[in-house]
Amino acid sequence: MPPRPARPVSASAIDKHVYKVFPNDMNSHQTVFGGMIMAKCDRLALVVAERHSGHVCVTAAVDSIHFRAPAKGNDTLLFSLALNRSWGSSMEIGARVEAENSYTGECRHILSAFFTFVALDENDKPIDVPGVKPETEDQKRRFLNAEIRRKGRLATRNKLNER
Ligand SMILES: CC(C)(COP(=O)(O)OP(=O)(O)OC[C@H]1O[C@@H](n2cnc3c(N)ncnc32)[C@H](O)[C@@H]1OP(=O)(O)O)[C@@H](O)C(=O)NCCC(=O)NCCS
Description:
The protein is an alpha+beta fold. Helices cover about 30% and strands about 35% of the residues. The strands form two sheets. It has a five-stranded antiparallel β-sheet with strand order 2-4-5-6-3. The chain has a two-stranded parallel ribbon with strand order 1-7.
C-alpha cells in the first residue's frame, strides 16, 4: 500500500496533555521520578507516530534528553509532542514537558527530547510513511534541524555497526 499523502504536523500533534503529579510519582529526593516522565513521553510520542503513519510503530532511538529543571510534588505536568520530520519509514518526534503550578499558573520547562520511531508493516518490516507539511515558523525550523540530528544518529549507528 503506498504511503498516504504528506500530512500537516497538527494532524498528529499532542498539545499540553495534562498529568497531575501524585506522591507515588516521586523519587527518594522528593522530586518527580525522571523515568516516569521519559516513559510517558515515549508512550505519547508513539501515539503521534501511529497517528501520522497509520501503522504500528516502535521506538528506534531516543536522543538529546535534557532534564532542565526538577518537577515537584503537586505540580501538573504538561506534555507537548509533535512530528518534526519523516524520511522513509522513520519519524522524529520532539517532546517538551512543562511543570505547571496550577494555583498560580506559573510554568517551568522540565524536559526536552527527540524520539525516532519506525513504522512496521504486517510482517514487522519497516514501511514508508507519509511526508510532513511544516506550516508554522517553529515547525519549519524543527523540520530543518531534524535532518541535522538524523545525520548524527545514523553516523553513530553506522560506526557502531562497523565494530
Ligand atoms: C527499529 C528497527 C525496526 C529498524 O530495523 P532495521 O532492520 O534496522 O531497519 P533499517 O535498517 O531498514 O532501518 C529502518 C529505518 O529505521 C531507521 N533507524 C534504524 N535504527 C535507527 C537508529 N538507531 N536511529 C535512528 N534511526 C534508525 C533507519 O534510518 C531507517 O529509516 P528510514 O526508513 O527513514 O531511512 C529495528 O532495529 C527494531 O526492531 N528495533 C527494536 C525496536 C524496539 O523493540 N523498540 C522498543 C519497544 S517499542
